[in-house]
Amino acid sequence: MLEIKNIYKTFNAGTVNEKKALKDLSLTLNDGDFVTVIGGNGAGKSTMLNSVAGVYSVDSGSILIDGVDVTELPEYKRAKYIGRVFQDPMMGTAATMQIEENMALAARRGKPRTLRSGITKEERAEYKKQLAILDLGLEDRLTSKVGLLSGGQRQALTLLMATLQKPKLLLLDEHTAALDPKTAQKVLDATDRIVEQNKLTTLMITHNMRDAIAHGNRLIMMYDGHIVVDVSGEEKKNLTVEQLLALFSKASGSDEADDKLLLS
Fold first, then answer.
1. What pTM was computed for the model?
2. What pLDDT, on the 0 to 100 scale, is given for residue 116?
3. Full strand arrangement of the beta sheet holding 218-223
4. Confidence class of residue 85 from pLDDT cuts 50, 70 and 90?
5. Over the stretch 95-125, which tens digit does the pLDDT of each residue have?
6. Which of 122, 201, 218, 225 has the CA that lies 20 to 30 A from 99?
7. Rg of the Cα trace of the chain?
């Protein structure tokens, strides 16, 4: 479903601030894979995600989504293949609009526009059914303004909106990092349910090693623009944080894990 082939990305090339963010990076995700991505600051995690989404153009290499070469496509043309949830809970929703209006925008994305106004009874019933998956009581608040919701509720709603049209690829960029631990766990539980129910191919960046181990069927760790650890199946399920740190040290040749990684 996703093929990243030998991509390179350098920022500020030829200057004193030159940073080689991705170095000959290759990664293949099969249909339905849920891959957690972990690594220290500057490892290249967000650069990889932004390169896949089309925010950054790569210097060389290629990116294919479901067999379609999107390497040269701008971000807005890749949007039909991708659902994305950002770290900031305020980014994915329109605060002054109602919950059902936000969902209608997401559900009708890319479809022909008509002069018909409003939300039908059938659409409203479907939105209630989808919101019930989140287990946050939002199905009873369809006409509430999104700006009145908590950060966790907004992030869960953003996740739901990003997956309403079952994208080829779901990108989660530390989507629980700005939430308190209890709310973060609720959003992660909702993520698991939505990904499983829709069999979505997913890339989830996290700084939390326990979350990286607990969620998904495969874990990759990045260091200095490369993938240095790639585990899946039973090996991933049986991992401990200590073993993951040992794998990181062995693969990176460094005993120094990033502070943010350790503190998580």
1. 0.90
2. 59
3. 82-85, 169-173, 201-205, 34-39, 218-223, 226-232
4. very high
5. 999 999 999 988 887 666 665 567 888 889 9
6. 201
7. 19
Exposed, middle or buried: residue 99 (CB in 10 Å: 0-12, 13-18, 19+)?
Answer: buried
Residues above pLDDT 70, as percent of the chain: 93
> Is the pLDDT confidence value at 189 over 60?
yes
Largest CA distance in the chain: 62
Q: What's the residue count for the chain?
A: 264
Please identify which residue in the block is written with the tokens 């200057």: 15
Q: How is residue 259 written in tokens?
A: 């502070």
What residues does each domain of the chain span? 1-81+167-186+198-264, 94-166
